Fold this sequence. Notes:
The protein contains 16 helices and eight strands. By secondary structure, it is α/β, with parallel strands linked by helices.
Amino acid sequence: MGDDLTLFLENFIKKEPIFDDKKALQSNYTPINVPYRNKQIQQIAGIFAPALRLEKPSNLFIYGKTGTGKTVSVKHTTNTIMEIANRNNLPLKVIYINCKLKRVADTEYRLVAQLAYEFGKDVPATGLPTDEVYKIFLKVLDSEKKVVILILDEIDQLVNKVGDGILYNLTRINSELKNSQISIIGISNDLMFADNIDPRVKSSLSEEELVFPPYNAIQLQKILRERAKIAFRGGVVAEGVIEKCAAYAAREHGDARRALELLRVAGEIAERKNENNLLVEHIDEAEEKIERDRVLDIITTQPKQFKLTLYSILTTCSDSKGDKQIFTGDVYEVYKDACAKTGVKPLTQRRVSDIIAELDMLGIISARVISKGRYGRTKEISLAIHPSILPKTSEALKEGLNL
DNA sequence: CGAGATTCATGTGAAGTATACCTTTAGGCTTAA
DNA sequence: AAGCCTAAAGGTATACTTCACATGAATCTCGTA
Length: 403
């Protein structure tokens, strides 16, 4: 047995690796050039260039579906700007915040607290008035002269949750500042986002606007090839692999991020299997693994009540095999049982209803409100998890709940 | 037969509550002169 | 008297509850053809 292990590890070293530089496929990698986005990058650069003269750049709003290169383009531009700024000793700062991150920036208080934290001020998680936190932030921000570019990614999620007052406050920051200047880049996946916010906020926030169209299959292929060239050792990638990845992502409204992830995970699978080449089969496996990881990751990071709710939905679903329609009431009954079993104090149906809505937002279930006429009104709930990973999912849930 | 009223089961908004945590303040204790 | 620690007071954000009203189509009711 020990010999097997040694053998495996020995082989691992001896074998030619599949990857050359895996970084190129990781999600936080910013490539040296971003294909098919030159125009957008040019525009972003044009908008932010004044920062290098220490003038406040216009606020900017960027729309585009997931994986259309919004974040990459912005980061690429700001990175370049920062390089120049550092070289010339310019007091410039770029802050990137993803508003979706639970317990980091998903409320106004936490967002501002996070901003303060970026400037080295620790703010307690609770207890302070929100405007106090604003003051703390303003004070550090204004403590010395500088230009700040604030990137708020997935800002639509935040506004959805807490309303648009927060945007108003943010746009007002500038008038409170004496030394510094701040300009805001909002990034939204929701193309309709701007229609639902206060027009005054909208006009000041989107002094400039930019839309990122989805990539088509051919562009995706080009992107994948370019990254694959860096990431993999030459000749490792089999015929048709890139095409398949691209096709898969094009199906998902041209999501390049998924395509790249698919390629990376496929590579990892091939590597683990001790294969010499990256084959088309690995992509299928990767597709499943990604989905599985995504779901498991969401599940394990959710609070207990969310797990319990999801568990209830899961059992309700599998109990009612034939008819796929399950409703809030059914779920709630199961939920109460589950609470009794695990010794957790059950929440009200009101709250569970909200939790169901949040699980829907996470894309792990899909719930839509329907009216059943005489038989009332409810949410029709169904799982948005691929059946092949269901067993693993419920296993993970049970483990998380000590069931 | 069809238009309107009714009904059900839950959606949904607003306001209230519990909890955990923050800062400030006032007192009590210690310490050093 | 000054300095330091502690505990109480007064305040907040967040997750949750309570209350009350809103929904919207299947079903019922009843007037009319």
